[in-house]
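Dear U.,

Please find below the material for section 3 of the report. The protein was modelled together with zinc ion; I have listed the sequence and SMILES used, followed by the predicted complex structure.
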Amino acid sequence: MSARPDIFTARRYASSIFDAVGRMTAYHRGVKRQGYSDTETDVLEYLASTGQSLGMEAEYDRAGNLWLTVPGADRSLPALVTGSHADSVPEGGNFDGLAGIIAGLVLAYSWHRRGYVPARDFRVLCLRCEENAFFGRAYVGSSGMLGLLTQDDLLLRHRTEDTTLGEAISACGFDSQLLTCGKPLIDISKIAAFIELHIEQGPVLDQESEIRTGIVTGIRGSVLHKHIVCRGETAHGGAVDYEYRRDAFMASAVLAAEMEKHWTKWLEDGEDLVYTTGVAFTGENAAYSAVPGEFTFSADIRSLSAETRDRFHELLLAEAERIGREHRVEFLIDQPVYMVPTPTTDDVRRRLLQAAERANVPVRELPSGAGHDAAVIASAGIPTGMIFVANQNGSHNPFEDMQMPDFLRGCAVLAQTIEDWDAESV
Ligand SMILES: [Zn+2]
């Protein structure tokens, strides 16, 4: 298949940037690029000089995100913006986030070689601190530039060090208080659209032999209970027969099994839904030979549809009530944390699908289960789309991998989308 040979010749260029940033941020078996750290600043400065050597303009916004710009023929037109986050989780992979930034540089590189001048400014946004791994707050850079951080966010403490998120932002030279002002600190009217390329972080595209590029339909919303506590009664595991037990673990397991049955049924009915218990543990007095009197677990429900998410949530509460009664235990349910689902913009999605066809890149539409800066940016009213690239071994781990031809196919879709949009502007 010949998808955009001009983009595919940028393979070595792209690899050299991935390798350079990977080397700068190597940590055990993976990489570590903490948001609002010196390491992240170093990465942004390296990316700035890389862009400048292609003739791009470099500037930082009030939240410290880096904007690299290929000046367009008509600079009064709102810009087309791509990009992603520069940070990573501790001992994470090199492609999560960075791929979306290097995709923008690949376009600038191939245009530079071709002598192509975009009709309007093309900007690559290198965002800070998307991951919540260090301070417990995700999308800090994108939320900050939109003035959407809160005082509580700034007071969040680092997971291991004696510092807060606000202090980390200030230490990088930015006014953290300004980022809580409640209004955008960037000029939103100067952005025509934001398109984020990102590795999929799931297995769907990598299982395909032909269709290895995704156009994202939307970013799933969630309802999360961090701690549901099942209370029963601790008892001797040998001496107490079935009918006398109030086994908190067994009741929780029955609840999990019931929810799995409902979940698979809902999938058959065509609903978009995922359900996860990622954390689970018995109480402090747990022992091999004791019937557990307490069991704590998390429940994370996600869907593209807020209605589906909320109905499944109600079902969870109802089943907890019923199973609790039947097993003579009580499920104590904590306050849920909600994230609204964010659909990508119809017009941007349509353009991405058309461009993929023109660029000869087979694509499929799919939802994003993971959250992304694109959702924050879309919620500010900016037309938004996402391109997914197949990757291996998941993400947020040092074994995360991505094949360069898959990356370049995603870049080809991005390039075609921008150029087609440009052609309409002149
Ligand atoms: Zn990411």
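For the text of the report, you could mention the following: The longest strand covers residues 221-231.

Regards,
Y.
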